[in-house]
């Protein structure tokens, strides 16, 4: 796991909840996800539901996958939801959750304000490897 923030950031990720048909994981510190054994696993025919808690109800939250980004749904209570169907992205991958302050995107005088957590995950049937 990786944590990246802009200088003087007020944007904050408090937690990321990752749910599949068989797993429910709450991450409060991405730096605890460094070893391959703690890699998230999603079956190719399953879906991954992410819920991010930021504490603010006007953030812009996006999921970052290999070569595309998708915006989370704002639940209006400081949480944001997103459902991903991995399908053809089988293998060891990474994804990120990026929280950007509303002012960064919609106010020309506000400074850049962003926080991101990045994770590795395995999509599909895991290979015969001791870490998975």
Question: How would you sum up this structure, described in words?
Answer:
With about 130 residues, this protein is mostly beta strands. The chain is about 5% helix and about 45% strand. It contains one helix and eleven strands. It has one helix spanning about 100-105; strands spanning about 1-5, 15-20, 25, 40, 50-55, 60-65, 70, 75, 80-85, 90-100, 115-125. The strands form two sheets. Strands 1, 4, 6, 7, 10 and 11 form a six-stranded mixed β-sheet that branches. It is elongated. The model has no long low-confidence stretch (mean pLDDT about 85).
SSE series:
EEEEEEEEEEHE
Alpha-carbon distance between the two ends: 16 Å
Share in β-strands: over 45%
Q: Which geometry do the CA atoms define?
A: elongated
Which residues sit in consecutive blocks of at least 5 with pLDDT less than 50? none
Helix fraction bin: under 10%
Task: Provide the gyration radius in Å.
Answer: 15 Å
Number of helices: 1
**What characterizes the major β-sheet?**
6 strands, mixed
Structural class: mainly beta
The beta-strand count equals: 11
Q: Mean of residue pLDDT? A: 87
Describe, in short, the structure shown.
The protein is mostly beta strands and 132 residues long. The chain has one helix at 102-106; strands at 2-5, 15-19, 24-27, 40-42, 48-53, 60-65, 68-71, 73-74, 79-84, 91-100, 114-123.
């Amino acid at each position: 796991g990786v944590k990246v923030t802009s200088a003087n950031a007020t944007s904050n990720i408090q937690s990321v909840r990752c749910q599949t048909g068989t797993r429910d994981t709450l991450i409060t510190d991405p730096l605890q996800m460094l070893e391959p054994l703690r890699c998230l696993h999603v079956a190719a025919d399953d879906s991954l539901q992410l819920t991010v808690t930021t504490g603010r109800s006007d953030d812009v939250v996006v999921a970052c996958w290999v070569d595309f980004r998708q915006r989370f749904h704002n639940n209006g209570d400081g949480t944001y939801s997103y459902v991903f169907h991995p399908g053809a992205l089988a293998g060891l991958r990474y994804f990120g959750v990026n929280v950007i302050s509303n002012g960064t995107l919609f106010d020309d005088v506000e400074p850049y304000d962003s926080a991101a957590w990045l994770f590795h995950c395995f999509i599909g049937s895991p290979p015969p490897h001791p870490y998975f």
